[in-house]
Design a protein that fits this description.
It comes from Paenibacillus profundus. This protein is α/β, with parallel strands linked by helices. The protein has two domains: about 200 residues, D-Maltodextrin-Binding Protein, domain 2; about 210 residues, 3-Layer(aba) Sandwich (D-Maltodextrin-Binding Protein, domain 2), CATH 3.40.190.10. It contains 19 helices and twelve strands.
């Protein structure tokens, strides 16, 4: 009986051990791949990844879109991934706040910030290759979808998300803004006018505009950089991506190319033929935009924020924002629209990169894209965004993103980074437009000016 009692105790102990093993789920398994230790996340009963580290620290830029979206999407993420806790730090100066953490090697797990972050921290992290590669995120498939995430993104935008020309994606494109040319859609509809496809068609509208008491064109006079909405896409249309890359990298002769010469010539034509609304050069952005809204000019460059920015400005009766990409020189040319976007990033030194990747993927779900539009009027850089957000954004914003479904290609332009210098190449390029409009500078002088600055920047980079 003593032996029987001992055997029963042993069997009970063994059964208890196996029962305990059956109820436990290993959160992760370590494997050796390519000489490095990597973590493979297991799945829970619903097939969702079950992370060992369930605490995610995120840093969010709190700009014009606010923080309401992030509060709600965090709540939804935590509900779906039981046990996960997301800690958010948000601020209009978020990069100033987290920069010391990044420098100390203790960054947040996830960062949302504009690519044009004015502290330069984002560009520095890109330059120093301090961001985690995200190719596996875009190669993966979202729950309920059959194609990989990369197929869902706006055409060619992921090319810009791999800035080192090595195919490694380090930026997840998020909210996208489109820049181009605006007109009064109500006026065009009533008059039976068609938005021009080529520059010849646009210039041919001058006489029509004059007969209607209008000028052809205006821009934000003392801020001529608004014309980048026209210049860079038009260079790409005329000379292809190579012409843009040559200019951005200050290649010798880049500004003497036929493409650049043709685009600079557009502004000379506007100046010489009297197409510009009088007084434009001396106006600030709100003054020029208000005159446009009141019907003084047919076209003005601006971004998809235009309607929201000018919501209280006076305008002619029935005014409706119409948007188009800059015209092309010849029918059949590729047509581009300058595009800017905000990014999602994971620092290489993040403590919880796998959960951060899952959080990035969560932002591209259709329900998250709709929520983002509802809370911010922002549009995520996916192909079907226009259909998803139509009920939540102004008509003008909807139309500005829909062009990518109609054959227009996004163009993201960034001057090559050089050692510190007093030369502001972008300012020098566009300040010249005022001189051209005042007939104080010729196209040839503009080209020589840009070649001179490009030479100096090229020498600095050597």
């Amino acid at each position: 009986m003593k032996r029987t009692w001992i055997m029963l105790c042993i069997l009970t102990l063994v059964a208890t051990m196996f029962a305990g093993c059956g109820n436990s789920k290993p959160a992760a398994e370590e494997t050796i791949k390519g000489g490095e230790t990597t973590t493979q996340t297991s799945k829970d009963e619903e097939g969702k990844p079950d992370f060992e580290n369930k605490e995610l620290n995120i840093a969010v830029f709190e700009g014009g879109f606010g923080r309401a979206y992030w509060e709600e999407v965090i709540s939804r993420f935590e509900q779906e991934y039981q046990g996960v806790k997301v800690n958010m730090t948000s601020n209009p100066k978020i990069m100033d706040i987290i920069k010391p953490q990044i420098v100390a090697g203790n960054p947040p797990d996830f960062i949302y910030a504009p690519m044009t972050d004015n502290t330069g921290t984002v560009q520095t992290m890109i330059k120093e290759k301090a961001l985690l590669e995200l190719n596996d995120v875009f190669d993966s498939t979202l729950t309920g979808e059959s194609a990989p995430l990369k197929d869902k993104m706006v055409d060619s935008i992921l090319n810009y998300a791999a800035p080192h020309s090595d195919g490694k994606i380090v930026v997840a494109p998020f909210n996208i803004s489109t820049l181009g040319m605006w007109y009064n859609a109500d006026l065009f509809e009533k008059k039976g006018w068609k938005a021009p496809e080529t520059w010849d068609e646009l210039f041919a509208m001058h006489d029509t505009a004059q007969q209607d008491g209008r000028f052809l064109f205006t821009y934000q006079g003392i801020y001529p950089t608004y014309n980048d909405n026209i210049v860079f896409p038009s260079i790409a249309s005329a000379g292809g991506q190579q012409a843009i890359e040559d200019a951005a990298s200050y290649k010798e002769g880049a500004f003497q190319s036929d493409a650049v010469r043709k685009v600079f010539g557009l502004f000379d034509t506007i100046a010489q033929k009297g197409y510009l609304m009088p007084g434009t050069v001396a106006m600030n952005h709100t003054q020029a935009q208000t005159e446009f809204l009141k019907g003084k000019a047919l076209f003005i460059p601006n971004g998809s924020w235009f309607e929201g920015e000018m919501k209280d400005a006076p305008r002619e009766e029935g005014f409706r924002f119409g948007f188009m990409a800059p015209p092309i020189f010849n029918k059949g040319d590729d047509r581009y629209a300058l595009t800017v976007y905000e990014g999602l990033f994971i620092p290489k030194k993040a403590k919880n990169p796998e959960l951060a990747k899952e959080f990035i993927k969560f932002q591209y779900r259709d329900d998250s894209i709709k929520l983002n539009a509802e809370k911010t009027t922002g549009i995520v850089a996916v192909k079907n965004a226009s259909g998803l957000v139509k009920d939540f954004v102004p008509e003008s914003v909807y139309n500005s993103i829909k062009i990518f479904e109609e054959g227009v290609k996004p163009l993201i332009f960034q001057w090559n980074v050089t050692p510190k210098t007093e030369i502001n190449i972008n300012k020098e390029m566009f300040d010249a437009i005022s001189s051209v409009m005042n007939k104080d500078m010729t196209v040839e002088q503009w080209i020589e000016r840009m070649e001179g600055y490009a030479t100096k920047l090229r020498e600095l980079s050597q």
